Amino acid sequence: MTSVPDVIQTWQMVQPWTRDKETGTQTPGRLERTSIRMPELHPGEVLVEIAGCGVCHTDLGYFYDAVPTVSTPPLTLGHEISGRVVAGEKSWIGKEVIIPAVMPCNDCAICAAGRGNRCLNQKMPGNSLGIYGGFSSHIPVPATDLCVVKDRGDMPLEQLAVVADAVTTPYQAVTRADLQAGDRVVVVGAAGGVGTYVVQIAKALGAGTVIGIDLKQEKLERALQYGADFVIHSANKDVKEVRNEFRALCKEHGLPSNFGWKIFEVTGAKAGQEISLALLSFVGKLIWIGFSADVNEYSLSRLMAFDAEIIGTWGCLPKHYPAALQMVLDGRIQIEPFVEIRPMSTIRETFEEAHTGKLTKRIVLTPDF
Ligand SMILES: [Zn+2]
Ligand SMILES: [Zn+2]
User: Fold this and answer.
1) How far is Cα 333 from Cα 75, in angstroms, rounded to an integer?
2) 95-144, pLDDT tens digit by residue?
3) What are phi and psi of 144, to 5 degrees?
4) Ligand nearest, relative to CA of residue 101
5) 309 C-alpha to center of ligand 1: Å?
6) pTM here?
7) Which of 15, 222, 239, 369 has its CA 20 to 30 A from that of 78?
8) How far does residue 358's CA lie from ligand 1's centre (Å)?
9) Which ligand neighbours the alpha carbon of 162 most closely?
10) Contact 204, 227 (CB under 8 A)
11) Ligand nearest to the CA of 120
């Protein structure tokens, strides 16, 4: 049995980047290596020894872009975690688990309505779980909603960290879209860390046609190998040009361009959002996954005229995790080509590279300190 150390090794966000509103001067944020006292576990909690924690766009938002965390710094970021239970509830000890990125309270009206992924009392590691997050050696978490990993074969446990968010958030989004076999799907941001899984999951669940749109040609080529039927390279094109290309592509392949498309907006960037809105048409659905602080202009009356819907989606219900994990384990969702494992001691450089858009894969950091 693994012994439990006295302290948790961790990389804390001591201070995010700040920008003086008057002078515009930027003060660099600080990520510091430190150790914190091992907490007393409460009833129902377990201690997870972390195998890996993915670096998500959301972490970068907290560190670089003044997106506030619920728990104020210093705190440890990181919410995409896999690991092994080493203390707490006896029945859990030794189990390999994925920690849901958002853990509902399971005790409120929203949870009771089956919408616990947006429970207002939810806990998210690296944001609202006190000072605890995934860029650590260990983390205390409620046991209830942990997803047990079984029969993972030779798939490394740390690699499965991406199931906690990058895979399950798209899974929830596709569920919210009520995806049916034969559906026509557009993924705007198809080549990114989350979009790549929207494409794979939609295709695996029977989508008839999946069109991927993205700025990066090289990554779009990869999307064609993993679920996309066609791609549109949107770099240096305005919304109209992209829409015309979409219509031409539909015409060429005998598909209707003006009705029934389920569109997933995954970019969280204004340009991508505008493309998504422009493609929504009759009896279509637009599922909004990406986040940005931008305000979009759109005539909502179009929704009436189109009998269309725009749906927001946040995180994923813990109950969907086993199904999403199973799709990864049986190969319907490929994660290996999209993940790179690095030691946690590279966190500063990794954040910097991720922030400047230099990465082609999602990084999972493994504890070495
Ligand atoms: Zn995330
Ligand atoms: Zn709740």
Assistant:
1) 33
2) 999 999 999 999 999 999 999 999 999 999 999 999 999 999 999 999 99
3) -45, -50
4) 1
5) 25
6) 0.94
7) 222
8) 18
9) 1
10) yes
11) 2
